[in-house]
Specification:
Strand order of the largest sheet: 4-3-2-5-6-10-9
Distance between the termini: 30 Å
Largest sheet: 7 strands, mixed
Structural class: alpha/beta
Radius of gyration: 17 Å
CATH class: Alpha Beta
Number of strands: 10
Helix content: 25-40%
CATH superfamily: Vaccinia Virus protein VP39
């Protein structure tokens, strides 16, 4: 699964079909980085303050997609391990400049994370968890591999988007059809309770909507102005 997974991609609401997660992201990988996705743009504006300085830190990017977070954090001096379900996404990530500084691994997030307890100082899971049925189990695993003094940052497409008929979708470069990727209908309370049930402390919970100034810079955000688009959580292991 890609860290970029949970993103509304495209302006037309018509969807011609649905793909399972792995197949969907393998297909999307071909065009993902050129999608000009408003959710990705909003996340990249809101996320950095929660990540802070990462130089010298052990970072795990859970659902790294095409490597946009992993490569940037590695360039800032972090020691980054990045995992994803989709080999298509990983191939794109590994082909980019700076990829040699990141350890990329394929992994199914429905399974136990292949890392020792407390192995990372920062665990980042970007735009992924709306594809995960077992939220509490994944939050628990991310907490397990996080240093007790570390932090976990989770972003996801806001559940309000599904009320607007939007979920992860893209235009298939082969057929030209708009396809959506199987998603779970989680609510904000599901994410909150999964984190608390996994023994994590919520330090920050943010709900972000594009405004007109953002839409002027990112035109495809116009149809989402005033509508919650991004949910962002900063979590810490409980003492």
């Amino acid at each position: 699964m890609a860290s970029d997974s949970s993103t509304p991609s495209g302006d037309a609401p018509e969807v011609c079909g649905e793909l399972a997660t792995r197949a969907g992201y393998d297909a999307w990988a071909q065009v993902y980085d050129g999608d000009a996705n408003p959710l990705v743009a909003l996340e990249e504006r809101e996320l950095p303050p929660l990540l802070g300085a990462v130089r010298g830190q052990r970072v795990l990017d859970v659902g790294c997609g095409t490597g946009r977070h992993a490569l940037r954090l590695a360039a800032q001096g972090a020691r980054v391990t990045a995992i994803d379900f989709s080999e298509g996404m990983l191939q794109r990530a590994r082909s980019k400049p700076g990829a040699e500084a990141v350890t990329f691994l394929q992994h199914d997030l429905s399974q136990r994370l292949p890392f020792a307890d407390r192995a990372h100082d920062l665990v980042l899971c970007g735009l992924v968890v709306d594809h995960i049925a077992g939220l509490r189990e994944l939050f628990g695993e991310m907490g397990r591999v996080c240093n007790p003094d570390g932090r976990l940052v989770v972003t996801v497409m806001h559940p309000a988007m599904m009320l607007k008929g939007v979920q992860a979708r893209f235009t298939d470069p082969q057929s030209g059809k708009k396809l959506q990727i199987t998603s779970c209908s989680h609510q904000v309370s599901d994410y909150v309770m999964a984190a608390l049930g996994a023994g994590l402390r919520i330090d920050h919970l943010g709900e972000h909507a594009p405004d007109s100034a953002f839409a002027a810079a990112v035109p495809r955000a116009e149809r989402y102005v005033g509508w919650p688009l991004l949910l962002l959580m900063l979590l810490r292991p409980s003492a």
